[in-house]
């Protein structure tokens, strides 16, 4: 049985009507014990903007969301302790892409994997805004 990695497209909206999109490919299957790289193409913000970081999260069927890790504007990374030997997060600023590489994946790694931009809030921008069309 393969490890099934379902991917989702996340849309986020910033205040002032800016549209942020994070786009991932469709579902992927990998044989247990093998590696897989998932790419997340971002638009609407720069991967080098010091205000933001891009995170990876996963959700196995019927279970809670699990944070995997992040990559910051300077390229620094952080990981959940129990997953840092399994996953590596990298980025390509020229193509605005953040990638998650999983190694030695097992059936227990079957999940929906999400990329997400870190939410920012300040007194000046705190509030609710209607999502503009992207």
From TrEMBL:
Gene Ontology CC: extracellular region; immunoglobulin complex
Pfam families linked: V-set (PF07686)
Ranges where the Ig-like domain occurs: 30-115
Any single biological process term in GO: adaptive immune response
InterPro entries according to UniProt: Ig-like_dom, Ig-like_dom_sf, Ig-like_fold, Ig_sub, Ig_V-set, IgHV
Signal peptide: 1-19
The organism's place on the tree of life at top rank: Eukaryota
Keyword entries, A-Z: Adaptive immunity, Immunity, Immunoglobulin, Signal
Protein name (database record): Ig-like domain-containing protein
Native organism taxonomy: Eukaryota, Metazoa, Chordata, Craniata, Vertebrata
């Amino acid at each position: 049985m393969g490890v099934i990695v379902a991917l989702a497209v996340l849309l986020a909206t910033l205040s002032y009507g800016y549209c942020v999109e994070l786009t991932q490919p469709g579902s992927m299957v990998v044989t247990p014990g093998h590696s897989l790289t998932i790419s997340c193409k971002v638009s609407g913000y720069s991967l080098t903007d010091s205000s933001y970081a891009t995170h990876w999260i996963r959700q196995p069927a019927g279970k809670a969301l699990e944070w995997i890790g992040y990559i910051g504007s300077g390229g620094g990374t952080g990981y959940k302790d129990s997953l840092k030997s399994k996953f590596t997060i990298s980025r390509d600023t020229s193509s605005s892409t953040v990638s998650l590489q999983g190694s030695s994946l097992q059936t227990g790694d079957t999940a929906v994997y999400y990329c997400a931009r870190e939410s920012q809030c300040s007194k000046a921008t705190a509030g609710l805004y209607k999502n503009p069309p992207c």
